[in-house]
TrEMBL record, chain B:
It comes from the Bacteria. The lineage of its organism: Bacteria, Bacillati, Actinomycetota, Actinomycetes, Micromonosporales. This is NAD-dependent dehydratase. Residues 13-242 form the NAD-dependent epimerase/dehydratase domain.
Amino acid sequence: MTAQNGHRRLTTTPAPASRNGSGPDPTVPATTHPTPAGSGSAASGAGSPVVERPGDQWDRRVASGLAFLRRRLSGQYEVDEFGFDPELTGTVFHPLLRLLYRDWFRTEVTGLEHVPADGAGLVVGNHSGTVALDALILSAALHDQHPAHRYLRLLGADLVFRMPVVSELARKTGGTVACNPDAERLLGNGELVGVFPEGFKGIGKLYSDRYKLQRFGRGGFVSAALRTGTPIVPVAIVGGEEIYPMLADIKPLARLLKLPYFPVTPTFPWLGPLGMVPLPSKWLIEFCPPIPTAHLTDSADDPLVVFNLADQVRETIQQTLHQLLERRPDPFGP
Amino acid sequence: MTPGGTPGAPGVVVVTGVGRYLGAHVAARLAADPRIERVIGIDPATPGPEFAGLLDRVERIRLDLDSLGGLLADLDVAAVVHLALVTAPDPQHGGRAAMKEQNVIGTMQLLAACQRAPRLRKLVVRSSTAAYGASFRDPAVFTEETEPREVPRGGFGRDILDIEGYVRGFRRRRPDVTATVLRFAPFIGSTADTTLTRYLSQPVVPTVFGRDPRLQFVHFDDALEVLHRSVAEDHPGTYNVAGPGVLSLSQAIRRAGRVAVPVWEPGLSGAAAIARNLGFGRYGLDQVDLIVHGRVVDTRRLTREYGFTPRTTAAAFDDFVRAHHGGVVVTPDRLAAAEQVVLESIRQVRSAVRDRT
């Protein structure tokens, strides 16, 4: 009830919502928001006849915000062996992503019943969007809307963990390096793991190639699933391709900066930092029925089985993408 | 079976490096074990006065490892515990060159002597989790089978790889000897005094900008317990020894009540290199790599084979925090008091505003 009130307030007052949505700065607004919001609401709520009840609610929020700050500053929180910080993720990162996926991208999620409520699962999706925003949107939407509120542990490219700041944000939100030991360890611990086998080929493709799945690499994700007997849940994500439509790739500049590609979009680099604002496309996410692998545990090293299974996953995602695109004739529709 | 020794526990034990903190404590602990007949401590230097009481029951021999010769065979030594490792160059004692001499050449000579000792049944070597190196492509958690992706930049890491290589060679040549390699996480505790504990007890702790490494520690007393069991029982193989669980560096600094100051990484590496060339400070590239990459190991093999779980990293760190009050900038009590003050003042402002309207 209290959470719903809070959401309605944020959506009806456009100023803070749009400001947060356009500039996803992960630390500043969330740590400071309880205090100004609390005093502001007290001033406006005092005029209404019901003074006591909203006052109590804001008092609770201020108190819990301050307690959160104290816990953070004294180091009294838990981090798992991969560096995942559930408290920080739930209190700071997911609320920010919520604004983005719900209010900015109007994301609709279907097929959540195919995601296991407990135990390990390997979620395999299509990658898109020049910046890997789809992975973050997927994990936030899954955590919010799945009945068991499961965290998706993302596997990221080396480049992510090479970059300062980005690497730590990735670890604190539950990500780790995409390698078989980490994938198998997470799956062995019964976690829900998210992987995008296309990698940079997926996010770095041109707008004209949108929703065409790229090659799936060596199928390392399949062998990790087979070794642990984990079901594979394919997921199709529509909407990511339009947020930063990549018109060209300046390869010499990319080589110079040691990046996999250097994107040119209708707004970037022309508008500078304003070009970083994602276009408000309409997003659809559909989870497909899981593919069981428990009976194939012995075939984890059989390349034929691995490639066949990877192909099956790829075909499922591609077909689901086509179906979703038919449901969404206008990329920027409501 | 050596006469007098119970099965598993050896009769005569040689401990190297008894002039140092770890060696002195291990030797004292083994000497207190009635199953072990004789404990002989070897060190080139006379142990400091602070260890004199500890080493009462330990026979001491002032000896360099290169003049060991046939001593191990003459003494009928059944077990050797090799702890004489230098973790950071000490400018007052020859710097990096002396460190490498002691770590690598010293181990080589000790193992050569061990090979010629016919009654030797057990070899316990102190190693470090630095054996896993540091790379951005590393898995999050190292098991004993993980190979380092690249040779470490730091001197200690390189020495550790060399030492483990010699132990592998020794295992091939003397398969009858039970060789145990213990890869320790950094030691911590109320009394441990290491490069890392000195780093964390500064009031202002330099960290690397944009990096928050995951750290693991092992409590000094638990390290002693594992070393003791390695001598008294048979545990061939390589084991990670660390407290379960993880602290991130920022979290550790906050729990210790210190203040972190982020520094740009190339600047820090450069400063470490300059400091080393000028011969001051004990921080080197080993330390920089640790606070960029962090290091977490899997300890399931230790728990399974030794039937012993060290206290958690967080508990070991708490013990360190309790013992290092000096230099504390922020305490949990002060934070809680500040929280109450802010909360009260917000409540007062709000009620004042409500009263006026």
